[in-house]
Write the structure tokens for this entry.
Amino acid sequence: MSEHKQHISTYKSQILVLLSLIVLTVLTVTITSVHLGAFNTAAAMLIASVKAAIVLLYFMHLKFDEKIYRFMVTLVLAIYAVVIIITFFDYLYR
Amino acid sequence: MEQNHTEHTDHFDPVASKLGMWLFIFTEILLFGGLFIVYSVYRFKHPVEFHLAHQELDVTIGLINTIILLVSSMTVAMSITALQLGNKKLTLILIAVTLLLAAVFLVNKYFEWGAKIHHDIYPGSEFLLSLSKGDMLFFGLYFFMTGLHAIHIIVGMALLGVTYVKVNNGTVNQNRVSLLENSGLYWHLVDLIWIFLFPLFYLIH
């Protein structure tokens, strides 16, 4: 059972992932320090989502593990997105 | 007959083990996800107060804590690689570094909260009660969500501490990395939550 092809991440790739996350963090701080109104929120949330995707795929190994995990995570996040959309429809058109 | 039962206690299934960890992580996403929706709705209803209250928070300390958590996420990911390659010593060092970084995060949090409480900003304080509803909601959510996150840091440290002992005595080894992988997943979840908490509370205008 434990003999199935196991993917081992390299130290180098993990350092690159960390660097990209730090660059994105600094980018968020820079973007939000400029006053751009509603665009600030959108940009910060977009970058946070990209960072979350990087953590999920590389650090949490979803990219290399069995597909079932990726499928489950996508499904849960999709359900969560639907809940957010329904909540805001409620508040916007109440 | 009894003999058969004892044999099964050593059953080892890494795929199912990780599946169970993910299911647990989904309940955590639900917990924090609900709080993020509460935050969004109140922000939507009190935009001005949320904007003013957010300026009370120190971006620098938030940024430092973000980077600490990101680095600790990398060290825990590296410790898994080290164990898979059979380097027990490096695994232990990397777990220890992760625990140290987690402790530094909590110390920063202590000073950050301490400064707020010193300025009479904490749930139920006289000063906060004199402010508008939006300010109260912002700080209430700030203390609740970062506090709940800090509890998760402590739980993650406990998990990694147990893993450290088990790697040290050989129960968790090159052929059985599941416990380290699952503790790592939990640690990344803590990082994942902070990735959203940081911009929402410290950055967004």
Notes: Chain A has a mean pLDDT of 90. Helices of chain A lie at 11-33, 38-59, 67-92. Chain A touches chain B through 46 residues (CB under 8 Å).
